[in-house]
Every structure is written in structure tokens, then in C-alpha cells.
Design goal:
Oligomer: heterotrimer
Structural class of chain A: alpha+beta
Helix content of chain C: 10-25%
Strand content of chain C: 35-45%
Chains: A alpha+beta (about 525), B alpha/beta (about 425), C alpha+beta (about 120)
Distance between the termini of chain A: 54 Å
Number of domains of chain A: 3
Distance between the termini of chain C: 60 Å
CATH topology of the largest domain in chain A: FAD/NAD(P)-binding domain
Number of helices of chain A: 14
Structural class of chain C: alpha+beta
CATH class of the largest domain in chain C: Alpha Beta
Radius of gyration of chain A: 23 Å
Largest sheet of chain C: 5 strands, mixed
CATH superfamily of the largest domain in chain A: FAD/NAD(P)-binding domain
Chain lengths: ~525, ~425, ~120
Amino acid sequence: MNNQRYDADVVVIGGGVTGCAVARELSRYDLKVCLLERTEDVCSGTSKANSAIIHAGYDAAAGSVMAKMNVEGNRLMDQLAADLDIPFRRNGSLVLCFSEEDMPGLQELYVRGVTNGVPGLRIISGDEARRMEPNLTDEVVAALYAPTGGIVCPFNMTIALAENACENGVEFHFLTEVTEIRKCGEGYELSVRETGERTDGPAGDAYKAECEDGTGAAGKTAADLQEAEMPENGAVKTITARFVVNAAGVYADRFHNMVSRRRISITPRRGTYCLLDQEAGHHVDKTIFQLPGKYGKGVLVTPTIHGNLLIGPTAADIGDKEGTYTTAEELAEVTAKSARGVKDIPYRQVITSFAGLRAHEAGHEFILGEPEDAPGFFDAAGIESPGLSSAPAIGVYLAEMIAQKAGAPVKEHFVSTRKGIPHVAAMDRESRAALIAERPDYGTIVCRCENVSEGEIVDSIRRPLGARSLDGIKRRVRQGMGRCQAGFCTPRTMEILSRETGIPMEKICKNQPGSEMITGEI
Amino acid sequence: MRHHDIVIVGGGPAGLAAAVAARKAGISDILILERDNVLGGILNQCIHNGFGLHTFKEELTGPEYAARYIAQVEEEKIPYRLNTIVVDITRSREVTYINREEGLVTIRAGAVILAMGCRERPRGALNTPGYRPAGIYSAGTAQRLMNIEGYLVGKEAVILGSGDIGLIMARRMTLEGAKVKVVAEIMPYSGGLKRNIVQCLDDYGIPLKLSHTVVDIHGKERLTGVTIAEVDENKNPIPGTEEYYSCDTLLLSVGLIPENELSKSAGISLNRVTSGPNVNDRLETEAEGIYACGNVLHVHDLVDFVSQEAALAGENAAEYVKNAASDGENVIPLVAADGVRYTVPQFLEMDGMRDSVTVRFRVADVYRDRYISVYYDDQLISRKKKKVLAPGEMEQVVLSKKSLAEYPRTERITIRTEVE
Amino acid sequence: MEVRELICISCPMGCPLTVTMDGDSLTVTGNTCPRGEDYAKKEVLSPTRIVTSSVRVNGGTIARVSVKTKTDIPKGKIFDVMKEIRAARVDAPVAMGDVVIADCAGTGVEVIATKSVARA
């Protein structure tokens, strides 16, 4: 519909899983939607470093927005995963109870879960839990079993939502930082600063041509739009919008407080994790939580959807919204706590450790919707755990609210499905052979640990909203995610990225500008 | 299914030497499968000199050393496939590989020689705290970017680990105008060759800090610095010894790990110390007809020893293809004790034993004035005094069939270090 | 009398050497082969090194060709040699052994290619 008085009907701030889910749901309606992301890619903040699980929904307080969104988001995952080709598995979860005196706590969790509408919950004995998971320790006296708990690839989920949103017309502006928001008529005016330029190489054009050829894709990459609309590098400009969605993660308080007197405060809560080799991936099958007890809050042990083992997180409230560093103490804490519930974890097989920041809001509740004093500004703030699980529901909830307020009709030609990049190594022999015959670059393995072919890397770059950094490629096709941690494939991947996009080698970044990999030619 | 007498997985120094030896032993149907776009493996990026003193009695650079073997492979017209990755090997010696021309292909091999080499331990395996910025490279990755692609990875570097590649890269970066501020080594001794410490660090005044490690990594996008601290005897950082070094590059040279994912796919179990397969004196793994040599078997210090070992694997594989020798009888295990960390091979099969068998091993610590002793059961057979023994350098003893024949009831052979 | 401790780098054995200098006489102990003695004397009197690096190739299948000084050069000349190597350019094809720089930094030593690079 696009009200002519504004550059966009809706501006979404933040390309994390929440922002992308909202954008995707908004793209069902006849609205001009713009998503602004500060970094070079979607899924670069909280969404990239978390437990990668879909919670069942027994944790959040009964009657809370958090509980509602979690349970609903969990329910939506099957359809979403099928529609958008997102790897997802309901592996089930267990909450371990270590002493009889903590049993009331477990019971309370069960009752809360039932109240929240979590299906299939059961309290089981320690022995039954050990039959389910032979590597549980003898300390476990009972457990809450939730069959609907699941594991997902948060990168894939966010990227899938973004790609689908893009295909349905949402404009993505990367390296675009919102610096100010002012009320402007009924809507808002945003000052943005462009911190870099997203390169779109010849390959992007080739892909665009392919799309226009018949696949029905939007046919325009975000970079095209950006090139057309953005002034030269580094410029500050303004964008006006009738509605704003604040999905800025740990920075959501900053934007909220620009438009509302009802201040909120988001504290980054750092969580440190260790990721283990796929050889350790079968150590447990379900996601294993620990019931908070007299020894404090535990850590979880879970397989990932790609077959690694993930342990963590710690919880440290910090002041630094960029403080994604690990500390020796927190790494030690992860190890120590995980051993309580699960025995013989092969810590020698740690392939990497990382820290993510949860956007913790003082009231420990999701803040969704318009502040009383800022109509048209929609918060999705305080989205900490279970934010990933809730994202699909938050998207629907906010999009419906905005569409209604805008009086926007549902689009006639919404494309609800999206196909991911083929994971060639996981295919059966015949399909793989056929694919290589058609596209020989699927037969050149670049990342030998994860068996990622050149074709998949090329795809990850050429797709709409394609990767422009090494981390972007890694998050899309798992290049460098394996046990050698990109030791062998880094030079080759840099070359492919440079070749496909025209970005000179010296400008190839690990992620954001400033993270250049090399300093120049010898 | 296509059949080849011998399939060699890997076209680096081990694979090349194995191929040449197998051809000389009379096998014509050999296929080398190489993942890179050239033969020679890691030698292509090791442009420094010091290779081949044992084999060719002259000092060659890595590419020159590789070229000698590649020339033999070309001369002998031994077929090879480049840009080809082996994705599976079965115990019955079915080898599946993939490349862009042929797609996915499974072939059957009379014998398989594993020569996949090794990979570097990444930062993640160290679990070093801090940020995860750009500018942290394993030394070999930086070496490839510099020596093959021609790019400088950084201007101010700190190197963690004093493995040979790290030492070599300290010099290499210095020669190309970068400032290498320090090499930190968590152990109280260096894991690299002495000559590399002299030529790569001492020559350029680069300090080597033993019993030190990196305890924090700074910089969110690109590395801005690291904190180094001294460690106690349990390798735990000592509070108060932290020192900050500003740098844009951290190179890691913290160990090499044999690349045995394919061996595992064939159901071959790995030795806990070497991370390579256990082998008999013919370098045959526990899977019949599957041999291993070079850095996939155990990490070597010198390529000359890789070539020697690989030639032996090639000859033995050829012998197996010709005679399909049955499992050897009369197996004697080799035991590593008292400062000897492991032995390769791990056991002897007396019936098929050659006149002499070279046993290679590494020691657990730096020792001075010690003997290396060989025992048949409790009987001391030989001892050799060594002025210095160091974990960074491979040692060897030679066992003779003749001497073993004099002790026919030997149940185990022990190799140990002894003070007196 | 002056005593210097060295580690022999003639080969990877790395023998620990002791050089005793007494006036004009030099004695070396700790070596296990004659090369150790040669090395020690040379290292004390006029140390030399082989320099290895790489040179940019125009029109080759790879960007750089690895090179070395054909023989060792005085240790003090290393950075002078590097300066010339860094400035040098060669056109593909290059054969292993080809002379890339005839007399490098006045040492009288050639810099030669240590690998072959075909034309792209």
C-alpha cells in the first residue's frame, strides 16, 4: 500500500531472528517493509550465539507473554521448518532433579508447564531417565520429560526467515545503524548511518537474471535496492516510516527510550558455551537441563541439529553490550556444571567456545507491542531465552497487530515456502551424483571436515541476501564449522568469496568491516 | 566396480614415496587420490630449506623435495587424480571419492595406503578465553596465504606454540617486514627443532618465552592484542605474571593431529598417544591390506623419515597384493616405557618380519645423558647413550630379526630411556 | 680465552657445540660429524645463511614462485637480499632452478626459483 508520505510503511530495526520473523510475517501483507541491520548480515548478534534449542515452554511464568509466545512458537515450528526448509528435530528435553528436597521444584515446573499448555509433560524417575539417556549420572533422582522440546539451527532459521521475507518484498539494508528516532507526524523519522558498503558482484547479477528467468523470486537483491537508495558510503540519512518495530536485541532499550518516557533497561547477560566435535554428538540424545537447586542454576547439555554436542551457558550480567568474550572462569564453570548431570563428557573434543549475550530485561518478560506514549512504535524487547523458540509467534503477533492498525490487506501472491541450499554430503548417492553432473562445483569439496562443496559456498553467496563475509558463509553452509575450524579451507573460501562478489582479497572480512583477514599483498 | 591394485589416499610426501616404492616393487596398477590441485601436499608451502639431508644428502626447500618425488611419479607414469576427496573407505577396501569430473565414484582396492597427513590444532581446542576476532590463524594457514597466495596476514604478530611451523613463520613474517613480538610456549621446552630456534628466532632477536601461554584475546573485529602469562608446572596461569602485547595477528602452532577420519570410517581404531592407527612392522593397520604412513600414522619431525616410512608401506602393500599374505603369526607387542611415549610400529609379526625393522618414537620430556634401551622381556639387548633427547625430535632404534631369533620365546619388546 | 656454546644447525640433529677461542686457535667439541666443526668455526668467524622467500609471478597459475639464494650469504646481508627479492618480478613460465636475480645485493649469489610455475 505504501503511504506516500513515508519512505516505508514499516521499518524493522534488527536482523536477528525476531526482526526477521516479524519481517517475514509482515511480508504477508500489502506493506512496504524495510529491515535495517547494523552488521553485514542477518543473525549476527544474540541470534547467532545461544543454545540453539526450541523450548517446550514450562519455564516461563504462567500467564506471562513469554509463556504464551514460547508455547505458541514451539507449536508453529513444524510448519515453519517444513515451509522454509529449516533443519529442526523434536528431540525432547529432560530437566534433571538431583535431590529429593528439590522435588517440589520439579513438581512446580510440571504444573507450570501444564498450565502454559505444554503437551505431553511427564515426571519420570531417575532410573527411567537413565534408560532414556544412559550417560546421565547416578545423582539424578527424577526428571521432567518434555517430548516437544526441540533443536534447531538458529543461523538457518534466521536466514530462512530473512530470505523468505526478501522474496516477498522486504528490503534489507545492511551495515545500516540507526542513530536516532524522532516522532514525525503519525509515524517516525529515523537517522541512520551507513557504516560500510555491501558489495554486489557480477555473480549477484547473474543470480538476479536466473531469478527473473522464471523462479519467481523477487529478482532484486537487497544490495541493488541499497545501491539505488543509499547515498555514498558513510553518509547519514533519514528514513521515515509509519510504523517501527524495535527488534534490536541488547540495544532495544536504547531505541525504546528514544521514543517513550516509560524507560526500559536491557542488561546483556553473557552466556558462555563450549561446542564439541561431532564425534561427541551422540553423548546425549535429548536436551538435558538441570533444575535450579541449592547449587544454583546449572547448564544444559544438548546435541545440536548438526550433530555436535553443546554445553552451557553461564549467566553473567555485564555492562558491555558488545562483551561477547569468554573468560577462563566461565569456561571452567561450563565444564564443572555440565559434569553434574551428564557423565564422561569428552571435554578433549571441544572444537570451539563462544559467548552470546541475552537481552535481559529487568522484569524478565518479553515487551511486545506499543508503549502507551509511542503509538506506532512496536517493541520486541527483552527477548532473551526462550526468544528463539518464541520468534515465530512473536512475528505473527506483531505483524497481525501492525497490519490491523495499518488496515493492510493480505497479499495475493505471498510465497510461503523457501528452499535451502542443498547439503550435498547428506544426500543419497544418486541425488548427489545427479547434482554433481548438473553442477560440477558440487563435486569440489572445499571444507573437508564438514564436507562442504564449492557449489554450496557459491550458493551461499549468490542467494538473495547472500553471504558477504566468511562468517556469513559459515553460518549458511557450515564451511569451517568442523574440527579444524577453517584451518584448511580459509584461503580457498576467501578466494571464492572474492571471485563471486568482486570484493578484493584485502577487503574480505571475517564478519563486519574492520575484521579484514589479511593486511595486503606481500 | 573399478579395481586398482593399490589406491593411495593422499599425494603429499608420504603418498608419493609410497607410490614410487610400490611401482618399483612391481605393481603397475596404482592410483593416487589427492585433494589439492597439485601433488606435493604441505611441502608446496614449506618454501624454507632444510629438507632432504638424509634422503638426498643436500639441503632442499619443500617444493624442491616434493619435485624430486613428483618427477619419479611422472616418469613412472603413475596415475593420480587431483582435486579429489576421498569420503569413505571400508574395511573391505572399497574407496569412495568425489571430484567435479567423475562425481561420486567407488572403487575396490587390492591394498590401500593411508597417507592423508595431519591438520593443525585450532584455537578452539585450546579453549583460550577472550574475543573471537579476525587475525587468529593456525600457522600453516598463514603459511599458505603467504607462500602460495602471496598475502601478508598481519603486521604485528604474537606466536603461540613453538612447533616448527610457528618458528618458521616467525622468520617468514619478519623477512616480509612484519614485527614478531614474542613466541610463547606453554611447555618448559620447545616443541620445535633446535635448528629452527637458532635460525628463526635467535637470528632475528625474537624472544621465546617458555612456560608461557595466551590467557586473553582482545579486539572484537580484528585482533588488537593478547595477554600472555607464565604458567606453573600444571600449566595453569600464574596470577600477576600477565603481560599485554599489542598485535593484529596471533599465529597458533600448538600441535598437529593426524587426519584419521577416513581410517575411522574403515573401522580402524586409533592409538591414544599418536592419534594414528596401530600398525605392525609392515605398517599394516588392523584392517587387512590397509597400510598407513607419514603424518597420518604419527606426526614426524623430518620429511626424510616420512619418505622412508612411506616407501616401506609401499613395498609392503605391493607384497600383499602379489602374495595376499595372511595374518602374521607370532605377534610380539612393542611397549613404550620410562619416558618413551609410543612406538611405531606397535607390534611385530615375527613370521613376516624383514631382516631389520626401524622403530620410531618420541620421548615425553627433555632428557640429558640418557640411554635408549631395548629389552626383550627382561633381557637388556641394546642401549645407546644420547646427550639430549627432546619431545620435538623423533628417535629411532633398529630391531634385527637375527637378534630376535636368539630369543625365540620373547613375549614383549620394551623400549625405554634409562639414566644409568 | 673465550668459550661459546652453539647448537649445530648443519642438520636437524642439532648437536650442542662448544667453541673455545684462544688467540688464533679455535677448538670445537660436541660435534658428531666434521660438518659440526665447520659450522662452529664459520658461525663464530663469519656466519652465513640461505635465504628463502617468494617472488611475484606475472601471468602464472599461482601468484608467487618460491625462491632461495643458491648458496648461503653473509648473515648481515639477509635484509639487503630480502629487499631485492621483494622488489623482483618474473614472468611465467618459471622453471625450478631458473635464475631470478643474478647477483643479489652484491653478494655474488644468485637467487633461483625453487618451484616451477606454468603460464596461466
